[in-house]
Amino acid sequence: MNTIIGTYECKVDAKGRLLLPAPFKKQLAASLKDGFVLKRSVFQPCLELYPMSEWNLMMLKINKLNKFVKKNNDFIRRFTAGVKVVEIDALGRLLVPKDLTNFAQISKDIVLSSAVNIIEIWDKDLYEKAIDDSVIDFADLAEDVMGNVNDDENGLS
């Protein structure tokens, strides 16, 4: 798994194209030839850009689900709803399909934000609301999520 680092503000043109910031393009250089998968986020009104290698790893997990269990089928259908294979062109642009633009309420100003091994694509206003500390106490969230993680190898606990 490759960790992607960075958060950048960008603009989308009238055709739905966004110019990938140079630091992201550099980090994703090895993935450019394989392409990407763009999909709706499960929990937020944003899009997720998966390098094809990361998407394939996710599909390996999902393929292990028993498709004779209705909940599994419902999950797979919703998880893959609107999924598109996309490429970054020679100029470093990514075309966001109209249905996904509508889902994420993307207007002109956007934020590209790393989320470990994928990139989230947000409408700027929605991103600002999502990271607003007054809505969620980040200290409490960090304790709930990471408080029981103990990794003695690197001193994190």
What does this structure look like?
- The chain is globular and about 45 Å long.
- It has helices at residues 22-27, 52-63, 70-79, 98-103, 124-130, 138-146; strands at 7-11, 17-19, 36-40, 47-51, 84-86, 93-95, 109-115, 118-123.
- 32% of the residues lie in helices and 24% in strands.
- The longest helix has 12 residues, at 52-63.
- By secondary structure, it is an alpha+beta fold.
- The strands form two sheets. Strands 1-7-8-4-3-5 form a six-stranded antiparallel beta sheet. It has a two-stranded antiparallel ribbon with strand order 2-6.
- The chain is built from six helices and eight strands; from the N terminus they run ββαββααββαββαα.
Write the layout of secondary structure elements.
Layout: E1 7-11, E2 17-19, H1 22-27, E3 36-40, E4 47-51, H2 52-63, H3 70-79, E5 84-86, E6 93-95, H4 98-103, E7 109-115, E8 118-123, H5 124-130, H6 138-146
Antiparallel strand pairs: 1-7, 2-6, 3-4, 3-5, 4-8, 7-8
